[in-house]
Amino acid sequence: MVRVVFYLVLCLTLFGAGTSAASDQSAPADTSQSRFKELEKGPKTIDVSKYPKEMQDNYKIFGKTCSKCHSLARPINSTYALPDEWERYIKRMKRKPGSGIGSKEAKAIYEFLVYDSQVRKKELYDKKLKEQEASGQNKEKAK
Ligand code: HEC
């Protein structure tokens, strides 16, 4: 329960204040293709049977929306974990022509991926969060 509240607050904060922060100039390098191959070798589904009902619904939207252009294994096995990372990436995917990702889908997918990262990739999530805090990389300073 505490986790859910924490997560909701986090979510609101990010959607309220963080929308202008993602500039997203990084063009994919040549190494992208081999990285994508690696990512797509991993599992293509997530066992969400123990996730809250709402997250199970969000997973369905994620599964339908994010497997249109590449395998769902790509986001599932990605090392993105932090809310910032997902926000930036979902925006990037949303902007692609014919993505079919609207604001409603984007929000549901964001909620799912942030929740899922904290459960399934907890170690990575905690590690990245610490690194982010240590480097003082908050949005105010980055401006
Ligand atoms: C319209 C097609 C399209 C849709 C829909 C789409 N993607 Fe992508 N995705 C791409 C393309 C093209 C790339 C490789 C180039 C890039 O990163 O921009 C990519 C790459 C990725 C990567 C790999 C990033 C990296 O560099 O390691 C992730 C993670 C990802 N997508 C997640 C998602 C998620 C999550 C969704 C659903 C919100 C989604 N994609 C929906 C086209 C799409």
What is the gist of this entry?
Helix content is 63%, strand content 0%. It is mainly alpha-helical and 143 residues long. It has a domain at 47-136: Orthogonal Bundle (Cytochrome Bc1 Complex, Chain D, domain 2).
Percent in helix: 55-70%
Named CATH architecture of the domain at 47-136: Orthogonal Bundle
What is the CATH class of the domain at 47-136?
Mainly Alpha
Cα(first) to Cα(last) distance is: 34 Å
Remind me, CATH topology of the domain at 47-136? Cytochrome Bc1 Complex, Chain D, domain 2
Q: pLDDT below 50 for ≥5 consecutive residues: which ranges?
A: 16-24
Supply the CATH superfamily name of the domain at 47-136: Cytochrome c-like domain
The count of helical stretches stands at: 8
Shape: globular
**Largest sheet data:** none
Rg from Cα: 15 Å
Structural features, described:
By secondary structure, this protein is mainly α. It has a domain at 47-136: Cytochrome Bc1 Complex, Chain D, domain 2 (Orthogonal Bundle). It contains eight helices and no strands. The longest helix has 18 residues, at 103-120. Mean pLDDT is 85; it is low at 16-24. Heme C (HEC) is lined by residues 28, 32, 35, 65-66, 68-70, 74-75, 78, 80, 89-90, 92-93, 96, 98-99, 101, 109. Residues 28, 32, 35, 65-66, 68-70, 74-75, 78, 80, 89-90, 92-93, 96, 98-99, 101, 109 line the site of heme C.
